[in-house]
Amino acid sequence: MNEGNSQEFSDEEISQLFAQYAVPLRSFARGVLKNADLAEEVVQSAFVILSEKGHDVARDALKAWLYRVVYNEAITIRRRKKLESKTAERVEIHQPFDSTTQTVLSNDLVKQIGAELELLSPEQQIVVRKKIYEEKTFAAIAEELDLPLGTVLTRMRLALKKLKQRLQREMES
Amino acid sequence: MTQEHDASSDKSWQAFLYTEGEMSAEELTAFEARLENDTELCEQVAEAVILTDVIAAASHQPMLAKPVRTERFAAGRFWTSTILTACLMVALLVGNSLRTPSDSQDLKLHGHVRPIVEENISDENVIRLWVETSPTTLAEAEPFTGPISPVEVEELNVPDWLLAAVQYETVEETHEETPSLDREEI
């Protein structure tokens, strides 16, 4: 990578940065847009901007800059979509993820998280599966299980904490 | 350190609520305003998306048939089969007891109930049955075979009730033969 802030990135550097940040940036964009295709479009745009205007970016702030660009691009797309059709916005924004648009995941990672799921208490497992697999709202889950909303949220939060710790361990290893 | 951990945990939870569309309009606006300048929060959103994907994929795995539940199911099947077997045995015993002749017709030997089929029994068979199952005979003598001589019967000390039963049957047989002949003649 070039030293200093006024030098442009080479193609090789751009490729390296893409390999390093594309997955988390794409995931972040999906979190904002709830659409995998638009998320991919946003990330591509961010790296085009990096290649064109990257010489202005401080190297130690590169990650923050990339996230900000992706976020701004995502918000711009959302606004455009909102103008195009309010109905389309309701469909595409803030909807649960479509399983067909999921990130390509390694089998090992999925197995490890699956094993961790099995270690959760049955009460937590039910909430996790209803939320993520059956894509129900917390309010619907609470009503279905005849539990206070706070109890459902607590169970989900504790379960997510354990699963996330396992995910981080697996990704580090 | 703990406060940092709590803050990170809280960010992670907020990110999950955001990606799952579980925020109110006000919360959403406030959260997105933070996203613009908080890189850590952006990373938490990315992690929440990946974690959700992995959990969803893991939920598709066939291994979700829990071993614990399998054991419970197996235990349930064991108990079900045990109860069914017990019920079957009780039904057989009840059925058998209903089919068993009354006490007067039973020959109770050493706690075992052996119904006697009246038509096929002879004096000799009754005595042989008694001899075979007599406590002294079982303990000391060899299995009884062949015809029984009167001397042997005396030595065996046959109880009176048994002799009476044998005599009674013999008398009955002679009585049955005579009237039937009479009826045929008439």
One letter per element, helices H and strands E, the order of chain A comes to: HHHHHHHH
**So what's the oligomer here?**
heterodimer
Overall structural class of chain A, as computed from helix and strand content, comes to mainly alpha
Give the low-pLDDT segments of chain A: 1-5, 96-102
Fraction of helical residues of chain B: over 70%
The strands making up the biggest β-sheet of chain B line up spatially as 1-2
Radius of gyration of chain A: 20 Å
**Individual helix count of chain A:** 8
By secondary-structure content and strand pairing, the structural class of chain B works out as mainly alpha
Number of strands of chain A: 0
On the 0 to 100 scale, the average pLDDT of chain A is 84
Uncertain runs of chain B: 63-73, 102-118, 180-186
> What is the CA-based Rg of chain B, rounded?
43 Å
Straight-line N-to-C gap of chain B: 120 Å
- Number of DSSP helical runs of chain B: 8
Can you tell me about this structure?
The complex is a heterodimer of chains A (173) and B (186). Helix content of chain A is 74%, strand content 0%. Chain A contains 8 helices and no strands. Chain A has helices at residues 11-33, 36-53, 62-84, 86-92, 107-119, 122-133, 138-145, 149-172. Helices cover 72% and strands 4% of the residues of chain B. Chain B starts with a helix and ends with a helix. Chain B has a two-stranded antiparallel ribbon with strand order 1-2. Classes of the chains: A mainly alpha (173), B mainly alpha (186). Chain A binds chain B through residues 23-25, 27-28, 30-32, 34, 63-64, 67-68, 70-72, 75, 94-97, 99, 102-103, 105, 109-111, 113-114, 117-118, 128-129, 131-133, 137-138, 157, 160-161, 163-164, 167, and chain B through 9, 12-13, 15-16, 18-22, 32, 35-37, 39, 42-43, 45-61, 63-64, 66.
Q: How would you describe this structure in keywords?
A:
heterodimer; A: 173 residues; mainly alpha; 8 helices; 74% helix; 0% strand; disordered N terminus; B: 186 residues; two-stranded antiparallel sheet; 2 strands; rod-shaped
